[in-house]
Amino acid sequence: MLFNSLEFIVFFPIVCLVYFLLPSLKGRTIFLLLSSYYFYMCWEPVYALLLLTSTLVTYLSALCMERSRTRFWRKGSLLAGFIPRYS
Predict the structure, then answer these.
(1) Biggest alpha carbon distance in the chain?
(2) Which residue range(s) make up the domain with 13?
(3) Model confidence over 53-62: pLDDT tens digits?
(4) Are 36 and 57 found together in one domain?
(5) Cα–Cα distance measured from residue 80 to residue 28, given in angstroms and rounded to the nearest whole number
């Protein structure tokens, strides 16, 4: 799906409408995440796996940073979040 395609012209207003109709912030976040996956899958389904991997690594890295007590482990978690993107 390209930004200048008819599919996107239909997709974008629907996503915006549903986003503002959802009452909770958590529901909105999950909806936007799923909408992003759908958008990427329309272009090339393989890229959804790349996006999923990036999401999981970033989320787990953030959890490790939040739970770590020392600065060393926080920096290590931050760097671990960047490694999959540049390797």
Answers:
(1) 51
(2) 1-43
(3) 888 888 888 8
(4) no
(5) 28
Among 58, 7, 5, which residue's Cα sits nearest to residue 33? 58
The whole-angstrom separation of Cα 19 and Cα 84 is 30
Q: Are residues 3 and 33 located together in one domain of the fold?
A: yes
| Entry pTM | 0.67
Residue 19 backbone zone (phi > 0: left; psi -120 to 50: alpha; other: beta): alpha
Domain count, the chain: 2
Q: Do 38 and 5 belong together in one domain? A: yes
User: Using one digit for the tens of pLDDT, what is the confidence trace for 14-26?
Assistant: 999 999 999 999 9
- The amino acid occupying position 42 is C
User: What residues contact residue 48 under an 8 Å CB cut-off, 6+ apart?
Assistant: 37, 40, 41
